[in-house]
Amino acid sequence: MKIMHQNWGKLLFMHWPIDADLLRPLIPAPLEIDTYDGSAWIAIVPFTMWDIRPLPPYMPPVPGLAAMHELNVRTYVQIDREPGVWFFSLDCNSRTAVLAARKFFLLPYCNARIELKQEEETIEYELTRTDDPAAAFSARWTIGKALPVSEPGSLEYFLTERYCLYSSRKERIYRAQIQHQPWPLQQATIERFSSSMIEAVGLENPQSPPLLHYAEAVNVDIWPLERA
Prior knowledge:
Elements: E1 4-18, H1 20-23, E2 32-33, E3 40-54, E4 67-79, E5 82-92, H2 95-105, E6 109-119, E7 122-129, E8 136-146, H3 155-160, E9 164-169, E10 172-179, E11 185-195, E12 211-222, E13 226-227
Parallel strand pairs: 5-6, 5-9
Antiparallel strand pairs: 1-3, 1-12, 2-4, 3-4, 4-5, 6-7, 7-8, 8-11, 9-10, 10-12, 10-13, 11-12
């Protein structure tokens, strides 16, 4: 049964290929690291959320939780042939949301100061984590042309079309289903970028430019955790 609705948007996928062996110590053994053409991927994903409310859909937004900003550091995993997302960290500017996500989804959320500004087709995103370990992110990007809908088997589909998240506690693996329309991807160009988000999870900061995709908005429904 669905338990929550959210809108996600102003979202930038920033992806880098990475050796799966570097990720393996950071991910519980029952989960298989998902690869594309032999390579694992790591991502930084800044975005904003709004219209956050419990389901059924006639429920009103939760006071203090109706809108917020978030950034996650993630990779891709699977178990029982069901591909999903593994989060190394998630930063949010709502303390209430951080506490709730830690408790109900067992996710490594951190408190942060986050600001998102947009002027025409340019977005600026600034983050400073207020929990340990320290981390920060600053970027300015320009939104580009719309891209075709991602086809199954393509790299874009592998990186973006994932409909569950995984988390763990006491050597048990949990899964939450997520539903939304296919990502309406657009091109994006980075004008400036600095980050210590990946270093904060114990990995070296990538030196190559990221593969970029932007999405303006999707409507998201979320299910509760279950044993995987």
